Amino acid sequence: MTLIMTMMLIHITLSALLALVSFWLPQSTPDHEKLTPYECGFDPTGSARLPFSLRFFLIAILFLLFDLEIALLLPLPWGSHFLNPVMTFFWASTILILLTLGLIYEWVQGGLEWAE
Description:
This protein is mostly helical. The chain contains five helices and no strands.
């Protein structure tokens, strides 16, 4: 047998052995919390149509907005090699100023307060 065939046989045997042992090794003692469909603390006997807070979606959108800011500013170091790097700095500063003003506006309006 060649070296490659020996290595493949060892890998397949070891993988099959570990897969079989993983079924018999853990002790499964399910309790009431593990058997419920929701393990995150929601009451499974209540209504499944409870509305989410709109503030949750606002925080998620703000996170995506600032994540997009990072994606837009990521190529900034390569932009300094252009013929006019002042324009690159101007547009990057414009993006940062607009996002900062938007954040200040949301903060003043109370949009970032989680509790009402």
